[in-house]
Design a protein that fits this description.
Strand content: under 5%
Largest sheet: 3 strands, antiparallel
Radius of gyration: 31 Å
Shape: elongated
Structural class: mainly alpha
Distance between the termini: 93 Å
Oligomer: single chain
Helix content: 55-70%
Number of domains: 2
Length: 346
């Protein structure tokens, strides 16, 4: 319909045909436009992508920001709060958006193709009015003689609603709580004996706790990595399992190495100068050890071994090239670790 007379005619026909449906003159221009697929077309709490993003952000984001907050040990409260607000914003706002965008985009493309196919069906009569919706036969859709429109009855709701805001607010509270729980745990006093030895002057309890936690996590992940059993009948599986365990080693090493590099006064982490020098030697040796293995497992992944489950020519070449380096970087780690432990003895 292209003019007011057409609208009036449609409204007169509507009055006798569909008394419970809105008149066409009551519909806004947007609803009378060409149908188009939407990223979401229902109340947000009924949308599975919303819950997908909320659950993953709550579980994964909460754990991540907890550990991030632990890394602020030794920092001033003002600095931790200002940086923490940025972490909370990224996790609570950008996190759900990034998690939802891929499934929502895939669903949108499917919806667009489905909508185009179903709306190709024409009504039995071409008179403008409410017709059975070919997309959802339990609803009605406005036919404008020139084609189907966006208007449906009952209209689809896309409201976020109070329930959606409450669910999102609860997720934000979990993220904020995880941050402050992590920060509080990093500032609490340590219990039991610290790995850093007996000769403390005035250690910073925050940095000392972080050093203990990071060092313990690092050593535990190394033990787990070294405990991966070698199966001669399944070398690909052995390397794959070792590569997965090594990812934890690499992550924990980065945390501990960053703390050591940023330490200006060894006393803050409960070490004297001799102990700290031994720690630096150990971390330097471990850096080479970690670097060689990171490159090695990276090449195996590039070769496609985790996917193929086989050790082929590409993998064999990588093993031959790294065999010597894998061995050579081990001895300095053992020697420097023993030297560091010796400095901790009372």
């Amino acid at each position: 319909m292209n003019n007011e007379n057409d609208l009036q005619v449609a409204d007169q026909e509507h009055a006798t045909a569909e008394p419970d449906t809105p008149r066409v003159s009551e519909l806004d221009a947007a609803r009378l436009g060409k149908p188009k697929a939407l990223f979401w077309n229902r109340p947000i709490v009924s949308d599975w992508t919303f819950w997908f993003a909320i659950v993953l952000t709550t579980l994964g984001g909460g754990q991540s920001i907890y550990r991030t907050a632990q890394g602020y040990a030794g920092s001033s409260s003002a600095y931790s709060l200002s940086v923490g607000l940025g972490d909370i914003f990224f996790t609570a706002v950008l996190g759900p958006l990034m998690l939802a965008v891929v499934p929502a985009l895939v669903r949108f493309l499917i919806r667009r193709a489905t909508l185009k196919r179903k709306l190709a069906a024409l009504p039995e009569d071409r008179v403008a009015g409410w017709k059975t919706d070919p997309v959802n036969t339990s609803h009605l859709r406005w036919w404008s003689e020139s084609g189907w429109t966006q208007a449906t009855h009952p209209p689809k709701s896309r409201k976020i609603g109070l329930a959606g805001m409450l669910v999102y607010g609860a997720m934000v509270l979990v993220i904020v709580g995880a941050f402050f729980a992590g920060y509080s745990s990093s500032t609490s006093s340590t219990q039991g004996q610290s790995f850093v030895g007996q000769s403390r002057s005035e250690p910073n309890p925050n940095a000392s706790l972080a050093a203990d936690v990071y060092f313990t996590d690092l050593m535990t992940s190394i033990d787990t990595f070294l405990a991966v059993e070698v199966d001669p009948e399944d070398l690909a599986g052995t390397f794959t399992r070792a590569g997965v365990a090594f990812e934890e080693v690499e992550s924990n090493f980065e945390l501990m190495n960053l703390l050591v590099e940023n330490t200006t006064d060894p006393v803050e982490i409960g070490l004297n100068s001799e102990q700290f020098a031994a720690m630096e030697d150990y971390m330097a040796a471990l850096e080479s050890w970690v670097g060689v293995r990171a490159n090695f497992y990276g090449e195996l992944e590039t070769c496609g071994m985790p996917t193929s489950g086989m050790v082929g020519a590409c993998e064999g070449d990588a093993i031959d090239r790294y065999e010597s380096a894998l061995t050579d970087t081990t001895f300095p780690v053992v020697d420097t670790y023993e030297a560091f432990q010796a400095t901790l003895q009372p």
